[in-house]
Each structure stands twice: as C-alpha cells, then as structure tokens.
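G., the chain you wanted modeled:
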Amino acid sequence: MSASPTSLSAFSGQRLPGLLPVSLILLAAAWMAAQSLDQPWASWLFHQQGDTWSLKRDFMLETVLHRSGRLVSQLAWAGVLMATLAYWRTPSAHAWTRPAARLLVSVLASTACVAWLKATTHMDCPWDLVGFGGERPFVPLFAHRPVELGTPACFPAAHAAGGYAWVALYFFCLHAAPRWRHAGLGAGLLAGIVFGLAQQLRGAHFLSHDIASLAICWAVACSVDRIGTWFASRSQGQDRA
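Predicted structure as tokens:
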C-alpha cells in the first residue's frame, strides 16, 4: 500500500533539511582523509602488494568490478529509463514513474558533476606518484600545479560515483515505496564502496577521492528530490486552483 502524495511530500520535506548537510559532513571527512589517511592507507595497500600495484590488472578488480561494473550501472540507468518511458502515460503508474524520472536525473547529474570536477581539478592517481611506483610529486588539491606535470584526472573518483550515484534510490523509494528507502540507500552505498575499494586496491584512487564522490552524489540526490518535490507541490496547487 503506497502513501498519498500529500503525506509523501510532507515526509520528504521534513527530512530534507536534515539530509542535505550530510554532504558537508562528508566533504569535511574527505578533507580530513586527504590530510591524514590517504597516504598511510595507500602506502599500506602498496606495501601489501609487494611495493607495486600488482592488482592493477587483476581480472576481478579491473574487468569485473571496474569495466563490467561501469557497464552494469549504465545498463541499470537505461533500464529505468525504458521502464519510465513505457509507463509514463499510464495513470496507475504515476506513483513510481515520477520518482523514477527524478532518479534518472539524479544519477546522470551526479556522474556528470564528478566527471566535470575530474577534468578540472587535475589531481594525480596514487600509481602516478613518487613513492607509489610513479614519477610525479604529490600536489595538493588547491596548490599551484606546474604545467610540466600535465593535467591528470583522478579526483573525485568517477567509478565510485557510478555506484554512489544510486544513493538516489533512497528518494525514489521514499516516494514510491517508503519502507524500502533504507534498502535503496544501502544499495547505492554498497555499490559505491565496492567500486571504490576495487579502484583503491588497483592504485587508481585515494580514500578521500571516494568520500568526495559520495558527498557530491548525495548533495545532488537531495537537491534533485527537493526541486522535484517543489515542482510537484506547485503543480498540485495549480490543479486545485
């Protein structure tokens, strides 16, 4: 049994003011990880592999979790899109097609934001750095980067974002099947953690890269749901007028 649109709007409105600041907490956690955890954690992983990224070409990590994992995320998005378009004009399906549309926008916007930041921050991957098998010195996020060091694209973590973007399932379930909202959130978190850890083991990302991706994905999911709820409430008000 699904909740009424009015009760769902109220439920969402009560939660969102407290949910959106979670992204600020996650960004603070990413900054602290960058300051104190990134290098020790990556060094430990590097040392455990014999002071080389021996898992860089590992079949499970590279082919299954990286390449195939990215494909699964893309296929999931395409599947939701096709289902939403197929039932969009069916009145009995409005309870889930509207939330599904927000889910699609949120996942796409999250991955696009992370991709744009990757192309502009020019942070190195661990495997490119001195001390981790690479040749480049570490340059902090907001520090001046010499031109001769190139323009790498490793921050935030795009592959982890391909999983974390699905934390938007929380809001989809919040509107379509409220009691499953925490399961939806858990699915997105689990996908992001698995994808992110796989890349850390390969030397592709630091821990802070993944936390930053989660912060961005959660902020986008909250924002898309808030905007969507506002438009839905406005539309209902106009229909009653």
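The two ends are 28 Å apart (CA to CA).

Shout if anything looks off.
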